[in-house]
User: What shape does this take?
Amino acid sequence: MAQMRRTRQPSGRSSIYLGKDGYWHGRVTVGIRDDGKPDRRHVMGKSKATITAKVRKLEKSRDERTVPEAGARWTVATWLTHWLDKIVTGHVKATTLSAYNVAVHKHLIPGIGPHRLDRLEPEHLESLYRRMLSQPTKFGSETKPATVHQVHRTIRTALNEAVRRGHIARNPASIARAPRVVPPEIEPFTVDEIRRLFLAAAQSRNGVRWVFALALGLRQGEALGLKWTDIDLTSGVLIARRSLLRPKYAHGCGGVCDQKYPGYCPRRIRTNPETDTTKSRAGNRQVGLPPQLVTLLQHHKRVQQQEHEHAGNLWHEGGWVFTTETGDPISPRTDWSHWKALLKQAGIRDGRLHDARHTAATLPLMLGVSQPTMMSIMAWSNPAMAQR
Assistant: This one.
């Protein structure tokens, strides 16, 4: 059999030919590489019909812009890393990105990272979820189903992007079943408990902070992120427009300080911004201040000015409403410790700081305040929160 001569195709056209090795070959230009040269893909097989089908498939993928990167055969680990570094960074909130990073680097890559992306099955994910639930946390307690759900939501979001870009045909995370999560029982504080908390707050530094939590229902980050420019004491209006973030650190010592956690490194470097926008668009809102709260804020401002004078050059002026003794914003972890101390001082049961927000929402609803009004005040974007 005479060997078929390879004819030269016009620039950019696909070609099919029988090679000297006895195999049929196909070449398809699918785009331009990073160096500016044509990205020409090669396929080979034993029959012309097979190669013709492969060339047409490549051409179809090229036309639909779903051709994978040259030489790339995604694993779960390489895709998740690419998704984090090149796709979502800069397009989601800092808190969301932080949660993605924990789910990816702590659970997903160690658990299913070596799997080929296009061969990942729902059963692989369900097996990972079962293993997570059987593994203790670093504090010795069992991993909670809510943690598994966060991991499940992360991989589902990442794989949705892989489907959209044509790297996989379906999303196995949309089929996999995550463990059932039972919402925690909401137990608002009683009127008597609120009264005792207010009395204890009146004797503590930054006591008006807890009035904000129990009366206005501001989220922790929203309250700690308040600046005096956000409050109009004359008209009695507050604008929630930012949230103070829990700091994240990296080692700045090159790994020589012998500290396991970078937060304890003497040369630690903060890796996340100080503040972010509110949790949702609904969170950016105006809140009316009762006259009693305006009076408390006026007193709080005078006390803060006295602390500023006492601290002198040690004071770091940032315009924050709630500060340390030197003017710095109060970290969320320190704020949580102050809340626990307040509960103990008031002599009432232990409770989450978020229970104060639930309390602020429950009492007005019991008094007949309309659901749309409460949704606006509490910055709820989902009406189901009112039902809870």
Notes: The radius of gyration is 29 Å. The mean pLDDT is 86.
